[in-house]
Amino acid sequence: MEQCRSGTGLVARNSEGVVIASKAVVHDNVGSAFAGEALTCLEAVKMGGTFARFQSIRFVHVKRF
To answer: Which domain of life is it from (predicted)?
Structure first.
């Protein structure tokens, strides 16, 4: 099975739409598109955990292609 690279970009905004955090990660040895999506979800959950003081967190997936 061919292994590929996957890039993940995350942006956290407050209720007014102001960016309060951002993160970019490159994953090596990703076996499939599904695995890349799973890694993106994992990074979002890890990033969301740092904002525990907020009342709500909403994750929105934006497909680029």
So the answer is: Eukaryota
Q: How far is residue 38 CA from its own chain's centroid?
A: 9
State the CB neighbour count (10 A cutoff) for residue 40: 19
Structure tokens at 2: 């061919």
Mean pLDDT of 18-42: 85
Contacts of 48 (CB under 8 A, 6+ apart): 12, 57, 59
* pTM (two decimals): 0.65
Which segments within the chain are labelled E, that is strand? 4-13, 19-30
CB 22 within 8 A of CB 12: yes
Q: What is the pLDDT of residue 10?
A: 83
